Amino acid sequence: MGASTYLDIVEAENARDAFIKATEDARHLEGHAGYTGTIAEKYDQVIIDPEKDGKDVSGWTRGDFADYAQNLINEGDGRIEDKWGPSGCIDTRDGAFILFGWASS
Q: In angstroms, rounded to a whole number, what is the distance separating the alpha carbons of residues 25 and 48?
């Protein structure tokens, strides 16, 4: 089986609620059969803070956070590169969370 990338922007009060909402929505849309290539395949997440990665996020928009997440996917960041591992999660600091990574397909 292969792998696909996904990147979802979810509005929620906290990272856990965003993860639950995103996985439930994906399972509703894609089914529960597995190998969807979406966040439906994930059961855990890792919080990624761009500031801890040395980035100055002052003035960043949701789009900037999404671009950062996409760069982590493209670069094969070890925190999110495993299709069986956790989803990445970045707080956009404006009421939304970016959920992203690789998933089995």
A: 22
